[in-house]
Amino acid sequence: MNWRRLNTIIHRDLGYLCFGLTMIYAISGIAVNHIHSWNPNYLINQERGTIDNLPGGPADAALTTEILKRIEATGEVKNTFQPDPNTLQIFLEGNTVTVNLNTGETLQEKVTNRPLLRQMNYLHLNHPKKLWTWFADLYALCLGVLACSGLFILKGKNGMKGRGGWLTGAGLLIPLFFLWLYF
Amino acid sequence: MKKLWFIGFSLAFTLLAGTVMPALADLQLGQPLTLTEITKVSDIEKNPTAYVGKKIQISGTVVEVCSSRGCWMNLASDTPFEKFQVKVTDGVIIFPMSARGHAARAEGVVEELKLSQKEALDYYQHKAAEKRESFDPQTVTGPETIYRLRAMGAVIKD
Hints:
heterodimer, A: 2 domains, 5 strands, about 20% strand, B: alpha+beta
């Protein structure tokens, strides 16, 4: 077997092996790239409302129960907190209710995980650490091998001596251009 | 071919399972807690400069979490209407949104941020953007000093 045949086999099999992870990194990459304009991990649904004639008195368990009943929020109360004398926060599972005790205005903030995307981001941003760090390193190494082996799949006018060479050169110039522009 | 579909579905199921599984059960984040004494947040608030640079452990209810990156959380103080920020390096520890309302302990070093008016403006603007809230620059009227815990480890109680 000559080296070019071996190179093609390595490129093909590594390509298959890396497909799943590459898709995870690609999708998550786009998701976290725009973190300034959206939340890639959570869906946060805000619902505003007003409670008429909210009873006065201390922000105790009775008032909490009354508020939840009025806004028809369900779930076990995990805790409450008053960031200031006029505001009460009620923490339910997956829902935080903020009430203005003066005006009766309410804000329910319901948080759910973005299905699949949160898990992809978890892996992409190496939150598991431990063994995953080494596995991700191995994957990065495989990507390097894929890139290098890909250069030598074809020979002739579509290989490195022709079209392949020009496109590879252009691919190297793109990051250099942005470095010149922004660095 | 059937095997490939099976592997594909298994992977998708594994990822999906994580979305419906219970989010918390005494979640240990970062380095294990080592201190046995808990410092009251109210004590820090009374004399913050005395704690700057000191390693301490604090506890309280999680009342707020950074929704973008999970890089900070606020713990309720033992005095009414007060809270204290626990900050971690982005990506090193990630506080989950599901921590809100849970009791937590955090261990780290108290740090002091002395901000000029411009820096304070940028700081609060960034915080508002993280929370996707509107921000009024007029609320920052001069230089500010912020005290917070730079945490190395935390435990979110179930």
